[in-house]
Design a protein that fits this description.
homotetramer; Rossmann fold; about 400 residues; 8-stranded mixed β-sheet; alpha/beta
Chain lengths: ~400, ~400, ~400, ~400
């Protein structure tokens, strides 16, 4: 049996296989599903969801429907995995709307259709559903019946607050939990960035001088993992308290300007635009590999790099060489997009297992308690956070 | 510029691009090439080579020809990269014989053609050339003119000794150097195995219980790297001295039988057949991921696994699920073949830079000293080993 | 020159030598002193202090007086180093009250005398001075002239709040800074506990199973340092979020009951009474070494241990063996008192350099701004915290 | 029970207490003693020993006598612990000769008396006994009856070979085992040096720049332990292969001259005279702490330091400050003697447990096999080494 390629004859089979692989590594949701199946907390409830339609989401929907829910979900343009969508649509209690190729406009239609399904509970992503709900007259009646909602992202919560979206039910923000912040940012991002850089380049990390720009949750995780692979890490961080912490953790610290000529690999993970300006790029050690692991692809000034280079070459999948006057070269990974997503598979499955467990228990509270939960935008309750950590320990140890 | 795929119109351009990527990460050979170009140690010499024809080899041939050599090379069946071969054949001093699809028989013909090119020096792999040279009457004259040779592998050296191949010149065995053993086995294999497992599975390593079976050079590297990624490593090792060393390095140690039910990932790296017997596999923790990083694909009893499983499923590229009576499952990576090669890109480029530098300086000695070098099968001289380590430090720090 | 003992003829010379050793390792205060000497922020100001009179304090007083301050200080009963006190009393602007042998009552008198020196600014420890100031009619006038104060300990701040001590000036709590919490608790305590255990026992840490009970700032530091010395660490922690973090950092985690029979060394660092109950002690692995690094000596139930043991033996300085019915023994370090203080020299000098720098800059603000600083009990301002971290980086890197 | 001082009324009680503390941490010898007590391999045999008379030796003698041996032992001048000697002399089968204050001449007499006890087997240290045996006419008869011997040190073995000492029985060299080399040099020395530096100085290691000169077994252990305590380690090593290994292990490497101005702590561990020359000392960073952990106190040029300094001060026990013209200072620990021995308690007990287990099983072979063992100077057999490692694992895990 030498054949390692997957011979899928049908889309939904491929989607099913992906879901099964995810399921095998999502023991927290398995545990929750078993309880949901016994207790049926969502019996008679309809859940309207906007979240990436991919394999891990599928495992989650399975837990919700085991708990009695009817689900209507739409993904985001570009991120929907069509084979997974097809597989999920075979489930009698799940309706998936949308496809990978959807335009932003089509996505808007799907969001409206999710709301037209008259959900009792909402699980939102980027506030796409909640903004429509709050502003469109069509959904005026629905506003009074929704029991509560979750919002996956901090950005979505920010958008709701920014726009003064007042809804007369509770919205719990999943990403505003300490558990998710530590597990996803420090551990998940830390290892997936190392994974992404290794895949894209096949270079040895042992003994390499790696400059990590930014030492927050993500940055400290990235620095630790590169060190764990034998690299010599230099941390660049402007906040003196974080910088002192890096120093005491055994990392060399430096101002960016002072370590450019030593960097063999440089990773930005600051959450700021222009963390690595073009001018700095030109002073990097010849042959330096550049990657971005921060939230914005604008951390590295790629535009100026594109226009100023005297030559640009594709070297490998996800690796471009830029050469400057005088012969100096840098290798940019995945065009400055998040290297863990663009060159790898993103966060490990287990990270999503924890995040979707937070979703599940939050939605359960909405189902059980309804409008008796304090209205407004809040973090997930500490009890749920602790419960999910306990489940993670139970599953992972 | 969002396009990340490589749009190669011609084979040789693709090969050329691969060689250039490798070259950018082979500073030791760059240094040696510069000296060779000045000193021309191979002026008027022809080198006959049997070695994998891939990008790193191409960078090496470039250094040899810069030193004045004429080269004829054949790869091994299955490992020749045709685009690289095509690119190299454009070089006036390099002749590449063979293609990826070659049969063993065709390979034998190519080996004979390499010898028919009347080389002054030989660089062999697995003793393919040297065995022909020693045994075929056709090459009787050649035996008296060859100045010396290298042999890449320990296996090849073993084969020569086993068959009492007596040649009246020196053969230096590249892999029998301490430098290569440490750098390639401990650091190279250690990191490429972690890379391979992450690529194949996308599972989180933080907090995972990883059982590493075998704690030699390779095994200790594998154990350290998994720990470096946050895993909980248990070392299984039969030799009490190595096992004590693992214990004092902070690793839990156990007999294989006593940790089967804890393993979430198990990697064999013993160099022995049947390191993980079928009987042990059936007692593994449900969902355990199995990988082999030892020299033989027979470290894990895959055949018995194939025949005894009640179901076998392709989960992802390089991942197969085997289920047993009672429902327990294991996930086998890359059919039990070397996980760093089969699921990743093999050893990092820098490892090969060091190995091919040992080749280069050894061949240079043959060219300069000829038959005044002590005949017989020897390790590379300590002077060359030290020189290459110095060059590596110069290039990498 | 083989003589390694210190031949001090006079007390104050011994005190002076201790101060000089501390000074050599307190570069942050040296930097601040230089600025104070130029700017004289305390010119004409009197500072009343209650803080341990030992070498590091001496270096600090030197910086304050360089800034123009007149200082009256009393230590705490038991902690005053008489030789240091004598050396400091030679300084024209420093008055030290009290001696090591002082009773609690004598200490109270000294505190009153500090207040009678009519300080403009107060630096308190455990609220000894501030409580007297707020409650004794004698100091009614002083209450209206004091410009501001610092309080070293969180306990002192708690005492002030508990007793509703309202003073019409600001009190800044030094230990409530994130910088001190991280640097002192994680790094300072972590390493000094390892130091204390090694000194007290001379046992090898490599390969030892060390159970760390508690995984807060201190506990995580202790766990990391034992691992750094090659120990096998098991973390016991009740809070699931901290426990999950320990697990993902690569530590084994367990309930206390489940690892008692594996512990070769057990350290409590929880901040809770009775973290290790007598019943648990009797179930420890024979020969287990017990140490406490938490704030209370009551973390280990020493009283019950004393009364229940069938034999108690002094083994070494700071080590007692307790034997139970059936022959099982435990070795208790420093009678359950803080092992880093009782068996070692307490926190490294550099930790105190940072803490006293926070004191210095806080007192400077009081001197410069006086009552314009917001009244009440507050943490040190973030600006000062950042400034001290910057100074630390400048000094230490 | 606050009293932590040991109230010993009699010398032998103090010695007994030390032995008991050692015994509690020597499980390998406990195991061997139990078997010896059953099997009596030394029944009717007399063992003549020259080895440091201290607590751990006492535990070993106890195991030998349990096996039926009669023992006569002398220590070395200066290292004999008189209280331990007194305690051991109470044992009916043990005779201890000598005291701490002995001169070299007295020691020589004691060695002769050991031989006059007509031992069947010898355990030597530095070849003191064997040299007398081989050269003094008085012991001519004894030479023909001795069954075999051990020699603790590599230096002793060297002395025997140097002087062409030919004895017609086997001498097994304990320190020439791989097990002892790894366990004692890498782990034992590594941790005891860190222990010694912390005790002597009470400085923080986190974030300190520590230069480790020498990266052999001992040096690599020292480097790893300092890193384990949070220090920033720079490795100085002349051999390019070891230096490359350090680099790939994640350590910065440098030439000594290039890191003198960065060193906050510098440890020599090379085994060479003059590893740190006076000229280099004068260029160290102001306030650098100097320690030697190599075999010779002459690794640091202390003599020239003594004569060139403009001022020398005792700072603390074991710490001297040397100041040069211009004001620069260095702090030398324990006068350049081995810092782990002079400022600490030397190697942890467990290391000696392993070493004395090698002694025990070697002597047993001499007792059982006598002159059938191959004569000459040899390392301990691999079987014994493996057996001791197995016993260590059994005891320590």
């Amino acid at each position: 049996m030498n054949n390692m390629t997957i011979s899928s004859t049908k889309e939904h089979e491929s989607g099913h296989r992906k879901i099964e692989w995810a399921r095998a590594h999502m023991p927290i949701l398995a545990n929750i599903k078993a309880r949901f199946a016994r207790e049926k907390p969502f019996k008679g409830r309809r859940i309207g969801i906007c979240l990436h339609v991919e394999a891990k989401t599928g495992v989650w929907l399975d837990a919700l429907t085991a708990g009695g829910a009817e689900v209507t979900i739409t993904g985001s343009p570009g991120s929907t995995q069509d084979d997974v969508a097809e597989a999920l649509n075979k489930h009698p209690s799940i309706t998936v709307l949308g496809a990978k190729a959807d335009s932003r406009e089509t996505h808007d239609h799907h969001c409206r259709d999710v709301l037209r399904s008259k959900p009792d509970i909402i699980a939102d992503n980027g506030a796409d559903l909640l903004t429509l709900l709050a502003t469109e007259p069509e959904f005026e009646a629905l506003r009074t019946t929704i029991r509560g909602s979750t919002e996956e992202t901090t950005t979505g919560a920010y958008r709701l607050r920014e726009n003064n979206v007042n809804l007369d039910f509770a919205t719990w923000v999943i990403n505003d939990t300490q558990a998710k912040r530590i597990v996803e940012n420090r551990y998940g991002v830390g290892s997936s960035v190392v994974d992404g850089v290794m895949r894209a380049t096949n270079v040895m990390l042992h003994g390499k001088t790696v400059v990590v720009v930014g030492y927050g949750y993500c940055g400290s995780g990235v620095a630790q993992r590169f060190r764990g692979m034998g690299a010599h890490v230099i941390v660049v961080e402007r906040d003196p308290m974080h910088r002192l912490e890096a120093h005491l953790e055994g990392f060399r610290t430096a101002d960016l300007d002072d370590c450019l000529d030593q960097a063999q690999i440089l990773v930005t993970v600051t959450g700021r635009d222009g963390a690595l300006k073009f001018d700095a790029i030109t002073r990097l050690r010849d042959g330096c590999i550049l990657a971005n692991a921060g939230h914005f692809s604008s951390e590295i000034e790629v535009d100026r790099l594109e226009s100023a280079a005297i030559s640009i070459k594709d070297c490998r999948d996800g690796v471009k060489e830029y050469q400057f006057d005088g012969g100096r070269r840098v290798f940019l990974l995945t065009d400055g997009n998040l290297v863990n997503l663009a060159a790898g598979d993103g966060n490990p499955i287990e990270i999503m297992d924890l995040g979707l467990a937070l979703q599940s228990l939050s939605l359960e509270q909405m189902a059980l308690l309804g409008r008796s939960v304090a209205t407004g935008i809040h973090p997930v309750s500490l009890e749920i956070e602790r419960e999910v950590c306990s489940l993670a320990l139970h599953a992972w140890v």
